Amino acid sequence: MYREGEFRVAEADYKALKSGGFMRQKQKDNFSMRLKAVGGNFTAEQLVTIANVSEKYGDGHVHLTSRQGIEIPFIKLGDIDAVKSALEAGGVSVGVCGPRVRTVTACQGNAICPSGCIDTSTLAREISERYFGRELPHKFKFGVTGCQNNCLKAEENDIGVKGGYRVRWEKEACILCGVCIKACRTKALSLSGDRIDLDGTKCSDCGRCVKSCPTEAWKGESGYILSFGGTFGNLIAKGNELFPIIEDKEALFRITDAALDFFSEHARPGERFRVAIDRDGWDTLKTSLERALHAR
Amino acid sequence: MPGDCVVDQTVDITDVVCPVTFVKAKVALEELDDGQVLSIRMNDGEPVRNVPRSIRDEGHEILKLIDNGDSTFSLIVRKG
User: Fold this and answer.
1) Which residue among A175, A178, A214 sits closest to B53, beta carbon to beta carbon?
2) Distance (Å) from the C-alpha of residue B18 to the closest C-alpha of chain A?
3) Which domains occur in chain B, in start order?
């Protein structure tokens, strides 16, 4: 497996390698190289580059990770620099592991999927540009899903973002066909005379009325439903929503900034966001996030 | 004849499942002239939630949805 004489980094600092996306394998001096992914999107050109690197420097296969990424196994320690430059030449970056912001995952969102309420790919890219690789007490995962079908499983993430619609009904366009009432999963809609009534206490902002209406009598403003403290590894816990849907992307980023600051301040090294919140209080987190939400 | 619409043709899509429901309705619409009216009989549940919007997205006009009282609905569509 390993070729002697190529060990320019024989005393390799595994921690540093790990932060650069090199996952140590069981097989001595072999690494599974984690590539940077955002929202699970790769171009055809990137895939060709990855295939070539796998054939030349790996064993000719790649692994699709559970978080929409790609790893190239059986990379030799001595080839690391050559592999990095071959990847960079083809527009492929190396990912990260360890205590930092990890790959941002996303479904295809409303650019592609008819069910999507938000542009998940763009948002994932913006989140990744803002936070990817940022050092924190432990790993930190963002996931972005376009609607309440939740294909991307938002609540598994330290911060989950889910698309939704704040909806309103316009009488003039409505033919009272009742499709929206059938499409609504929370029984928030009812027909009363020549009106459709919306019970705001039951509405989940899913936007299915907007998506199903055949006459565009339902209008929706898209927004973000956030969940905090999800983790699905050794500890399994679902992220919690702390406030209603947010329509403003700047407010979204003020909140995520504040959440990462909270994590840095409150967590002990090696402790997940969830554990820190459970110890120091959901109310404390909520207070600081609400302050960020209302800040200007 | 449902309500005040003159129906030119009917199609029953209760014998097929998604995505053939929409395809069968689309084929039936293609055989009509513009402005003619089609009644599409469909099952409650997924078809009635999704087929009306899909038909509209094809450029046709939804006139009404009639509850047949037997867990089926008739969607009345004017070809656009």
Assistant:
1) A214
2) 15
3) 9-78 (3.30.110.40)
Interface mutation vs chain A, best among B5, B46, B49, most A CBs within 10 Å: B49
pLDDT tens string A141-181: 999 999 999 999 999 999 999 999 999 999 999 999 999 99
| Among A116, A132, A136, A133, residue whose Cα is nearest residue A124 | A132
d(CA A104, CA A109): 14
Q: Does domain A14-89 have CATH number 3.30.70.3340?
A: yes
CB contact under 8 A, B62 and A215: yes
Catalytic, out of B5, B7, B18, B66: B18
pLDDT at A10 over 60: no
Report the SS3 class of residue A226: strand
Question: The tokens of A245 are what?
Answer: 């849907």
Q: Where are the alpha helices (DSSP H) in A58-104?
A: 80-89
Supply the ipTM of this predicted assembly.
0.78
Q: For the domain A105-163+223-294, what is the CATH superfamily, name and number?
A: Sulfite Reductase Hemoprotein, domain 1 (3.30.413.10)
What are B29's strand-pairing partners?
A: none
Q: Please give the average pLDDT of every successive group of 10 residues along chain B, which has 80 residues.
A: 74 92 94 96 92 92 93 95
Give CA B17 to chain center in angstroms.
14
Q: What angle do CA A191, B11, B35 make, to 5 degrees?
A: 80
Element (H, E) at B65: strand B61-67
Do A285 and A228 meet the contact criterion of CB atoms below 8 Å apart? Answer: yes
- Helices then strands (H, E): number in chain A? 9, 12
B5 flagged as catalytic = no
Q: Which residues of B touch A177 (CB under 8 A)?
A: 52, 62, 64-65
A116 three-class SS? coil
